[in-house]
Amino acid sequence: MEPIAKNAPKTWHQKHEESRSFGERIADSVADGMGSWSFIIIQTILVAIWMIFNFVAFVYHWDPYPFILLNLLFSTQAAYAAPIIMMAQNRQSDRDRIQALEDFKTNVDAKKEIEELQKKLNAIELDKLDKILAILEHTKE
């Protein structure tokens, strides 16, 4: 990928990234992390270790079966994760809307250019047809 020149205009994505607040960056990072396989694998390993230690603990069961403390931790995690993920999804919707608008503007500009090229091609075609007709009339004489 080629580096972008320093004086090049910023893309809508670069402008959006720079406009995010600290909280928005954290929410996006949390949502990215919680929506990954590494998070699921790590959480599964931690839950398995938690359950194994509480099943085989000979002296002290800090969270005996049915693992009420573990359920409380999951509930707390879900209570915080859901709104954070929703914030990230709302921002993704905003990004999608901005990208769609930018794509629309690009399409309108491209349409204008294509229409101008079509007019020029039509003018060239008419000019050539006029020349052909003039040659044909000249050969008839």
Topology record:
Blueprint: H1 12-19, H2 22-34, H3 37-56, H4 68-140
Helix pairs in contact: 2-4
Task: Outline the structure in words.
- This protein has 141 residues and is mainly alpha-helical.
- It is 81% helix and 0% strand.
- It has four helices and no strands.
- The chain has helices spanning 12-19, 22-34, 37-56, 68-140.
- α2 (22-34) packs across α4.
- The longest helix is centred in the C-terminal third of the chain and has 73 residues, at 68-140.
- The radius of gyration is 32 Å and the shape is rod-shaped.
Name a few traits of the molecule.
mainly alpha; 141 residues; 4 helices
Computed structural class: mainly alpha
**Radius of gyration, in angstroms, nearest whole number:** 32 Å
How is the main sheet built?
Answer: none
Number of strands: 0
First-residue to last-residue Cα separation: 64 Å
**Total helical elements:** 4
Proportion of strand residues: under 5%
Could you list the spans in which at least 5 consecutive residues all have pLDDT below 50? none
What is the N-to-C order of secondary-structure elements (H for helix, E for strand)?
A: HHHH
Helix content: over 70%
Give me a quick take on this structure.
With 141 residues, the protein is an all-alpha fold. It contains four helices and no strands. The model has no long low-confidence stretch (mean pLDDT 86).
